[in-house]
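Work Package 3 (structural annotation) set out to generate three-dimensional models for the target panel prioritized at the project kickoff. During this period the team completed the workflow that converts sequence records into C-alpha cells, so that structures can be stored uniformly alongside our sequence database. As a representative example, we reproduce one entry of 560 residues exactly as it appears in the project archive.
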Amino acid sequence: MQKLYTPAGESLSSIPWNTYPRPQMVRKDWLCLNGIWDFEYDGTRTQIMVPFCPESLLSGLDIKMKYGREMKYTRRFSLPEAWRGRRILLHFGAVNRLASVQVNGRAATVHEVGCLPFTTDITELLLDGENELSVTAVNDLSHRYPWGKQKEKRGGMWYTPVSGIWQTVWLEPVPPRYIRALTVTTDGSTVEILAEGMDTGTVELEGTPYPMAGGKAKIKVENPEYWCPENPRLYHFAVEASGDRVESYFALRTLDIRTMDGKPRLCLNGKPYFFHGLLDQGYWSDGLYTPAAPECYEEDIQAMKALGFNMLRKHIKIEPEQFYFECDRLGMIVFQDMVNCGKYRFLRDTALPTASFRSRKDSRLHRDPEVRKHFLEAMDDTVRLLRNHPSICLWTIFNEGWGQFCADEAYERLKALDGTRFIDSTSGWFAQEKSDVESLHIYFSPLKTGEKNLPQILSEFGGWSLKIPEHSFNLEKTYGYKKYEDRESFVTDLRALYLDQVLPLIPQGLSAAVYTQLSDVEDETNGLLTFDRKIRKIAPEDFRDVSDRLLAALPQENQP
C-alpha cells in the first residue's frame, strides 16, 4: 500500500489541531493537550502524535493493531496560574472505543462510545504543579456499539479501523456554576436560546443585550436574513451568567415539505430546493478519521462548492464540530447519518437488496437488546451534539439495513427529539411505513424515482472509478462501480449521467441526489478528489453549468 500524505499532512505542526474545538460554545481560556504523548501497546513503549490514531501515518506509528488489546496514553501538564480557584473540565473529542481516564493515578471517567465526545470535572484530582493524565483505550471493534465502516480485514467499501484518541484533548476553566450547554431553537424570525444550568443572565445578540429568565431568552430578529448555501448568514451572540461567558451563533432557516407542480418536495425557506450532493466518508490518506488540520474541511467544502454542489451526506461518521462549523459558515448543507451498530451480512444487507429483493419487515432484526439500546442512545446523543448546526437539514437513521431494527419506532423517537429536520429512516432499502422521504440507492441500473407519495431522493448513485495510480492507496485492487482509464471519458460520462438521467427526474419529484463520492478512500477510487486531496478529477469549468441546470429545474409556485 502506498503511503500518501495530504498537503496539510506534509507540513504538520508540533501541536496539531490547536483550534478551539467547540465553535458553537466558545470560552476564551483553554489549554490544548494535543501533541506528543507517551504510548504503550503490545509490550512496546514509544510516542504518538495526538489526535491521530496509531493506525495513521500522522500519528508517527502507522501500525497494524491487534484489536481488543489495551493501549495506554500518558502525558504531563501544568495549569496556568490564572486558573487557580476555578473548576477544571477535561474534554475528549472522541476516543475509539472504550476509554478509561485517570488523573494522577486516580479514576476520572470511563466512556464507551467511540464516535462521541465526553467531558469530566477533574478539579478534585489535580495537584499543585505538574499533573499526569493517562488514557487506557481498547478498540474491540464491537458491533454492539457504533462502529461505522471499520473492519480488521479492510478492503472494498470497508476501511482501516481507527483506535484510541482521534479528536482533540483539552482543558477548560469554569466558575463553580457554569453554562453546561446551549440549545438554540429558531422559528421563522424568532430565536430561543436556552443556557443549561442557568436561571438568569444576559444574551448579547450582535451588540444588543436581552435578559434571560429561567435560563432562556426569546428574541425576535428584525429584518431577518435566511441561511442557505447561496447566503450562509450567521447571527453571532454571547451568553453571560454567573461569571461565565460563552460565544456562539445561530442561523434562521426553515425546512418543510410542500406540494409543488403536483409533487411533494423538500423546501428550504419556503421554496423547493434541489439538494445537489455528494457522499462524504470523512477519511484521509494520512490521518484516517482525522485530517491533518481543521483547514482541510474548508478545502473540501470549497472544492465541492466550486463544482456547484450544495450538500454533503456525511456517511456513517460523526465529525469533529469544526466540520459542521465550516459547513455553517461556508454554506454547505449536511445530510447526517447515524453511526450503525449491529452485525453486517453481505447476502442479507447488500447482495439481495442490490438485486431488488428489498422488502423486509425489520421488527425481528438485530434483536440483541444491548445493540438496540446503544444505537438509540447514540442517536439521541448525536442529535443533542449537533442540533444547533443550521447546515444539518436531514438525519439518516439506517443505511442499507446495516443494524436496522424497528425503523418506524426509531423515526418516532427521532421526530420527537427533533421535529425541525427531515428524516430519512431507511436509506437505500428495507423501507418501513414512516419516513419523510423515499430514499433509493441505484448503482447498476438506470436512475429512477420511487412509487411513494413522498419527496424522492437518490441517496446514493454513481460510484464511478477514475484511478490515478501515483495518488492511489492500493495499486493492486480497484473498487468502483464503473472504471475509467482517462479523465476526458470520465468527465463526458459524468455530465451525461446528470443531464440525461438526473435532470429529467426533477420534474418527476426528485428533491435530492447524492453522488458517490467526494474523495477516494483506500481501495475505492470513485471520488472526485484523490485520497491525498492533491488531484481534482473534475474542474469547475467541466461541471458548473450542469449544476446550474439542476438547480434551475425546480418549479417555483405552489400548486393547488
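The domain at 255-551 is CATH 3.20.20.80 (TIM Barrel).
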